[in-house]
Amino acid sequence: MINMKIKLAIVVATLFAAGALAALNVDHEAKRVQEVLEEYASAMSSMDERRIGKVLAGEDLSVFEGPTSEPNFGWEDYRTNHLAKEFEIIDKHHYAISEPSIIVDQTLGFAKFNYETRAKLRGRNGTSVEVETRGVGSAVVRREGEEWKILHLNTFRQYIGEVGAPPG
User: Fold this and answer.
1) What is the value of pTM for the model shown?
2) Does pLDDT of 101 surpass 50?
3) Which sign does the torsion angle of CA 69, 75, 79, 80 carry?
C-alpha cells in the first residue's frame, strides 16, 4: 500500500506538470499571436492586400485609428475606405511592430504594442515627401480553427515627422 506522503508527492508532481504544460501552451499561443502581428506589419509594408486580409477576421474586423480617422467595420470597409486611399498615394512603406505584450486564453487574445511607420508619399505636381510615424496600438485576436486572426485594431500616433519636403 502506498503511504500518504507518496500519494501527496504524486498529486503535487501531477499538478506541477499540468501547470507547467499549461504555461508552455500559453507561451506558445502568445508567440503565435506575435507572429500574426508581425505578418500584419510585413504585409502592410509590402502593401499586399491579399496578405493583409489573410490575418484579419473578415467582416467581424473593426479598426480605430486615432481621433482623425473614421472607424472601419469589416475587411471590405477597411480595404476600400482606408487602405486603398492610403496605398494610392504611397510609393514606399515600412511598418514595424515592437515590444508586444500579449495575453491569450483558449479563443481570445489581447496585445499591446508600439509601432512605427515610414512612408514615401506622392504629392501633387510630381513631388514626394517621406513621413515617419510612431505610436501605440492594441489588438484583440480570435482563434479561428488553428489560426489566430486580428479581430480589432486600435492605433494612435504619438509622433509624426516629415523627413523630406512637403508635397506640392
Assistant:
1) 0.78
2) yes
3) negative
